[in-house]
Design brief:
alpha+beta, about 220 residues, elongated, 4 strands
């Protein structure tokens, strides 16, 4: 479907589209890369297709396009950077969204984006497979980042809280780098074994479903 950029901004304000902040670390794209994305909007260069998964409440989880949405959010809503490293519109380097001429503000806000929406009736296992297949950009999602996106809620918040504990860092001798959620997956493996017990351990090798089910249990009221 065609989605006006202003609709994307409204969903970001509402929280009805999952923010890249809750799925991956910030700064996977630097300000220069994000600036060139904004420059593309200013030049009316179409962006690649975005993929989102819709739930029953019509909230969207971003499958593919996280870094592009991050750039748009940081430039327009957060006012987090000024333009730099532009290729064609160098006269506007150092400007933020509010200081751009109305011509370019309107071009950005009137951009129509193309979204492919995965319906809520799609089985969860198929959704996870779509995540894996589509996130083939510069830095594909890890398995835990996919779980974090699909099952965001109390489980994801708990894992983030636990991975930051000094006790966890001491227990792992600071050897686990959680920038791609490796620490959170390690903790989730422990919690899943604790919740389901050794008798339900996936002897068939389907660890992904085992860990996803644990996140769903933790998310339950």
């Amino acid at each position: 479907k065609r989605v006006p950029l202003e609709t994307l901004l409204r969903r970001l304000r509402q929280g009805t589209i999952s923010s890249p902040l809750i799925q991956r670390g910030e700064n996977l794209w630097g300000d220069g890369q994000q600036s060139r994305l904004i420059e593309s909007l200013m030049l009316r260069i179409p962006l690649p297709l975005f993929y989102v998964a819709a739930d029953e409440k019509e909230c969207w989880k971003v499958v593919d396009g996280l870094q592009r949405i991050t750039a748009i959010r940081r430039f327009i809503l957060d006012k987090a950077f000024t333009l730099s490293g532009l290729e064609f519109l160098k006269a506007h380097e150092g400007e933020d969204f509010d200081s751009l001429p109305p011509l370019y503000q309107n071009r950005i806000l009137e951009t129509e984006l193309q979204f492919a929406v995965i319906g809520p009736s799609t089985p969860e296992k198929v959704q996870r497979n779509i995540f894996k297949r589509l996130n083939t950009g510069g830095l594909p999602l890890t398995a835990q980042e996919i779980r974090h996106a699909l099952y965001y809620g109390p489980a994801a918040e708990l894992l983030q809280e636990l991975v930051e504990l000094e006790e966890f860092k001491a227990a792992t001798a600071g050897s686990v780098n959680d920038s791609r959620m490796a620490g959170r997956e390690l903790i989730l493996r422990y919690l899943a074994a604790f919740i389901f017990g050794p008798e339900q351990y996936p002897l068939n090798g389907d660890m992904d479903s085992f860990l996803c089910n644990a996140m769903k249990v933790i998310n339950e009221p």
